Amino acid sequence: MSLTREQFAQQIVDAGRFLYGRGWSPATSSNYSTRLSPSEALLTVSGKHKGQLGLDDVLATDLSGNSLEPGKKPSAETLLHTQLYSWRPEIGAVLHTHSVNATVLSRLTPEDFIEFEDYELQKAFSGVSTHESRVRVPIFDNDQDIARLAAKVQPWLDAHPDCVGYLIRGHGLYTWGAQMNDALRQIEAFEFLFECELKTRSVMNRQG
Ligand SMILES: CSCCC(=O)C(=O)COP(=O)(O)O
Ligand SMILES: [Zn+2]
User: Fold this and answer.
1) How distant, in Å, are the alpha carbons of 33, 59, 175, 183 from that of 188?
2) Interface predicted TM-score of the whole assembly (ipTM), two decimals
């Protein structure tokens, strides 16, 4: 049974409180969405403090990123959400966060990806059933032109149907799930793994 619009909005409000509380969505950064129907998404309004969202701080868009609610300003990154709903019909929620670790790790990595291997927590990602796997997370250079950025993300998604998330360098993380709880679980897994990677690199650098 599908949720009502108000219940979806409440999921977004609750996600904001949780992610702000963990320090992963400081100030007005980040944006969140849920799928409302096969052809519509419910997204955060642009510029809102994500720890203080109200039920009215969301708006419906079509999957081309067009607002269906004149008078409300859609997130600047709407297209990065709607492209994911268009890419995979089973995606029901998308979360974008701005944690310190995602920002630092993406800036420290000269390659255009990071890879997790041999971590038990990889199994928190949808479709991953063993630590004996490699989870590759692409890093796209930041771009204020979101349509141009989305056009760079799309070929990666098309070539990697098992992708569980991506980083934008110096900016943040995008991940998703069948439902809001799945997307939240993936955010937690990513944040754990980002911290492990940074700590490992720090120790290895000190060892020379
Ligand atoms: C202050 S963060 C800059 C914009 C951004 O990256 C973000 O995630 C929030 O943008 P929105 O338009 O969704 O508020
Ligand atoms: Zn952002």
Assistant:
1) 17, 26, 10, 9
2) 0.99
Residue nearest ligand 1's atom 8 by CA: 30
Joined tokens for residue 93: 């929620």
Long-range Cβ contacts of 144-151 (<8 Å, 24+ apart): 146/76, 146/77, 146/78, 146/79, 146/80, 147/79, 149/80, 150/79, 150/80, 150/83
pLDDT in tens, 30-47: 999 999 999 999 999 999
Ligand 1 pocket mutation, candidates 19, 28, 45, criterion most atoms within 8 A of CB: 28
Q: Which residues contact 145 (CB under 8 A, 6 or more apart)?
A: none
Global pTM value: 0.98
Do residues 41 and 33 touch, judged by C-beta distance below 8 A? yes
